[in-house]
Write a structure and sequence with these properties.
42% helix; 7 strands; Rossmann fold; 18% strand; 6 helices
Length: 179
């Protein structure tokens, strides 16, 4: 199974986030799965791939040509796809992956997460989605989503399409057992 991980590329994140990325990548590989990710070698993105490779996992990176020097392309990828832009990147990641896990991240991570969530709701795919957030980084986001639901901006059933987890094992179990 191929698991996509959406995560931070910021080099200013705390060491705990880097460790979480490495541990998730390692767990993906230890369970015999492949990693599909943004193809970057820095920050959490790089740690997820390092963790997977350290435990014998295959890593499939997808990076836009324009970001090759910004996210420092991961030349150690098992397979690397250089694409024209972010739209192509997201489309190829969606096509290659069997399930998705979002880690804490910034607007890029959230944009990818929301797009894949909306795609699932609209029936463009039926792949499982989990958010792995052990430190409650997305606490206020979840409050905002609950408020949108209360005010009828979110429809019934949308919340249930995403499993919010605090442990790596729970996130992996969700995405692998949904298939």
């Amino acid at each position: 199974m191929r698991i996509s991980v959406y995560c931070a590329s910021s080099t200013a994140v705390s060491p705990e986030n880097l460790t979480l990325g490495f541990q998730l990548g390692a767990a993906i590989a230890q369970q015999g799965h492949e990693l599909v990710w943004g193809g970057g070698a820095i920050s959490v993105m790089g740690e997820v791939a390092k963790g997977a490779r350290e435990f014998g996992g295959k890593t499939i990176g997808v990076i836009p040509e324009r970001l090759m020097n910004v996210e420092f392309i991961d030349h150690d990828s098992t397979e690397l796809h250089v694409v024209a832009d972010m739209r192509e990147r997201k489309g190829l990641i969606e096509k290659l992956a069997d399930g998705f896990i979002a880690l804490p991240g910034g607007i890029g991570t959230l944009e990818e997460f929301f797009e894949i969530w909306v795609g699932r709701y609209l029936g463009f795919h039926n792949k499982p989605i989990a958010v792995l957030d052990p430190d409650n980084v997305y606490k206020t986001l979840r409050v905002a989503l609950d408020d949108l639901t209360t005010k009828n901006f979110m429809k019934p059933g949308q919340h249930e399409l995403v499993n919010w987890c605090t442990e790596i094992e729970a996130a992996l179990n969700h995405v692998t057992k949904q298939l």
